[in-house]
Each structure stands twice: as C-alpha cells, then as structure tokens.
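Work Package 3 (structural annotation) set out to generate three-dimensional models for the target panel prioritized at the project kickoff. During this period the team completed the workflow that converts sequence records into discrete structure tokens, so that structures can be stored uniformly alongside our sequence database. As a representative example, we reproduce one entry of 87 residues exactly as it appears in the project archive.
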Amino acid sequence: ARRLGKPLLRDTLKRIRPTKAQMSIDDARQRRINVAHAFTATPSPLVAGRDILLVDDISTTHSTLEASAEALLAAGAAKVYAFVIAS
C-alpha cells in the first residue's frame, strides 16, 4: 500500500463471530458455511464507492475471500478484488 500510495485499511474488516480454521474443514460447502456472515466492515470514506484489494496468504475454496468481499460491499465498496499469495 505504501509503495502504491494507497491507504492500508487494517481495522476496517473484522471477524464478528468465531469460526473453525478453514484448513481443518475438507468440504468446500462446509467451508462456505463456516465463514458465512463471519465478517463485518466499517463503512468509511476510504471504503464507500471505492475499489478495494483484499490480500490473503492462501486460498483454496475462496470462501473467506467471498465472505470478506460481501462485508466490504455491504459497507459501500464499489468493487472488491483479491490478491492471493498461494492457492
């Protein structure tokens, strides 16, 4: 974010309920259920109407990214993109 001159939003996205570790769940459907409605995003001028880039270390079924994106869109983000180090 610093190199691109963009804000790093560390506290905008929050887990609002405990979930099991995704790597402990084999079934893709169960992974989606595990993280469904588990996140919220704080509406702010840095989110509203903006394109947001989510960065994650690993993604297999993309369930966490999808749940996080839903929360950001509900907070007013225009679009949500994801960058994953490993899949």
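The chain has a mean pLDDT of 93.
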